[in-house]
Amino acid sequence: MNTIYLEEVNSTNLYAKSNIEKLQDRTLVQAARQTSGRGRLQRSWVDLGGDNLFLTFVLKPAKTFSEIYSNLTQYLSVVLCKTLEEYSLQPQIKWPNDVLLDGKKVAGILSETVMQGNVFKGLVLGIGVNLNADENALKQIDRPVTAVNLQMGETIDSEEFKGMLVNKFFENYDHFLNVGFSDIKEYYINYACFLNKEISVQILNEKKSGMAKAITDNGELVLESNKKDLVLTIGDIL
Q: What is the pLDDT at residue 45?
């Protein structure tokens, strides 16, 4: 696979989207620094400096869009959890794709589909992982966050981590595209930290509360609220 390495960029996803016509399938776009990193729901992703991971997978699996592609963020969250386990850590997933260590967010994942009219040009799947951060720097973020080095008590080799993550991603990528979320459902549920708990979910401008009952074969969250089951395809657990 081809890797494009940038010293500084607004965001690896934006770069990939802008250049998707000339980028080959399975190209990796990596940056040392991001000036305008973004997460889900238009949240900004704070750049904590060098030796962290800012990476986008450029994927062109077919000429037409498939609903399976919307689960690639969950696939990547499982891949990240498996990578973190190689460091003897115990990661968790908060639906749909937040990865936590010690109950604190350690990574952001964002997938964006690129269309030209009705033509599917591909998708960009971005991930930012806090690998090496100063505890004081994390205090600038208004949500509980952590970094791998703080959990390990030692500096993390970012290139070694990236290599492991990328290898694990492509190891079962083709099989996942054929099978869909059900291929990773068991792993996903094992990592889940929200099931069988009372939670609140922000869905655009609306909030729903209830018991996190199950995950469907399509990766949706089943929320039991007022004795009714709500099947949520999007949202953010508060």
A: 54
- Under the banding of pLDDT at 50, 70 and 90, the label for residue 98 is very high
Q: How far apart are CA 18 and CA 23, in angstroms?
A: 10
Residue 193, amino acid = C
pLDDT grade, residue 141 (50/70/90)?
Answer: confident
Number of domains present in the structure of the chain: 2
- We report the CATH number of the domain holding residue 225 as 2.30.30
CB 192 within 8 A of CB 92: yes
pLDDT digits 0-9 by tens, 2-20: 999 999 999 999 999 999 9
Spatial distance between the Cα atoms of 78 and 66, rounded to a whole number of angstroms = 20
Between CA 22 and CA 114 the distance in angstroms is 13
Between the CA atoms of 28, 33, 34 and 35, what dihedral angle is there, to the nearest 10 degrees? -150
| One domain for residues 103 and 203 | no
Q: Which two tokens stand for residue 230?
A: 């709500």
Domain range for 69: 3-191
86 and 166 housed in the same domain? yes
Distance CA 97, CA 191 (A): 11
